[in-house]
Amino acid sequence: MLALASFASGLLLRTSDPSLAFFALLTRAWELLVGSICAVVPATRTRGWVALAGLAMIMTGYALVDPSTTPGWLMLLPVIGAALVLQHASAENLAGKVLSLAPLTAIGAASYGIYLWHNPLLATLDYVWLGYPPIWVTGGTVALAVFLGFMSLRFIERPVRSGQLFRNPMMLVTGCCVMLALVVLPGLAGHLRWLKPRSAPVSEALGNIPPPGDRVWEVIPTGKSPLNFVVFGDSFARQYFPALNGRYGNGSGFTAPGCLSLPGLSNFNDRSAAALDCASRPGRLAQLVRERQIGAVIWAQRWKVEMYETGSLQSVGQSTSQGWQAMRRGIAQVRASLPPETRLIIIGSTPTAMAAGDPMEGGYVRCLAFINVTCASTFPRALAESQGINPLLAKTTQELPNTRFFDPAQVLCDDRTCTLRQQGKAIYHDWTHLTDFGAQTVVQRFVQENPTF
Length: 453
What we know:
This protein is α/β, with parallel strands linked by helices. Helices cover 53% and strands 11% of the residues. A hairpin with a 2-residue loop joins strand 4 (261-262) and strand 5 (265-266). The termini are far apart.
């Protein structure tokens, strides 16, 4: 019953929380419990064909099971197959004779050590190698795991089991506690930021930190007194707020993650709570501006997105192609909803580091950890994410009253290239968002062009 409950829990959690379903003891205990059942209820008679069927199930599972199917029904193949082999393989049948071959029994003896070593070694390889490593690199890593597994068997497992190492129970307990402490304490110190990673000095030198309050989406001062400005948009707007508030003061932040909303349009294609909140934001912005007599709306987004009608959820197309006319009308509607005396300043898309390719996905410091790539310091401006959308936004703002456009690409790019570093500092802390230095650099030029509201 416990095994069935464990298996069922994995199936239930598979779609809602795949990581928990894969790693949790509760959802994987059934695999251990099947082995326990084999130990408690041994077979009364061995059948060679059943053992061969078990081996076939294991090999079939090896071919079919992958991360997308785990946990799941396919996991029954290797687990039940292993149980059949345990119950029915013997020295008298073919399966037992094959599994008794010296190379296989040697691997079996060292298998747990190999299992323990392979994960950190392959995880390290995945961290330092961009993309799929060549077969010789992966093969060498697996060979190292096998070697270390046999060394663990020779110098740790067998001496402990035979009593040569840790001769009494108290010594064994003490040794285990010391080993656990060597793993747990550094991990805890790292989690609590008491112990910094080796890359910390490089990260600090590059200024590889996001702007302050990178998880604070709304900053609305209490009271009813007038405000100088409000920053409106998504995370690309939020990244500018600390620097803008430091320069102008008395500002407000009204942002939401991943939200580009216009009257009747948004970049959400569902009816989730986040989608409903996003759809309501243009109206709430207009209300906030009137209630607090806000002098300027600074509107920043990741503008290159696919847009959907909030009623039908039908796509109107990408903002740089079929969807542009709908976006243009929506921007004009937002402008019309604001008081005529309130200035609207639209900040275009940043070039983003995506154009520099996969090495920059985790930011510049993450790129430096790869041993098989060289981290670029620039990329062609023609590839910048801002290239298609920003000229359209600039033209639209010229048609609207009391509206201006500011292009971050004019700060972060020259005529031919866009930079990933300036003055020795990183511009982006991930694939798309600016570091605090990058945001400050953009805002410095913004303030020069907009000294007052």
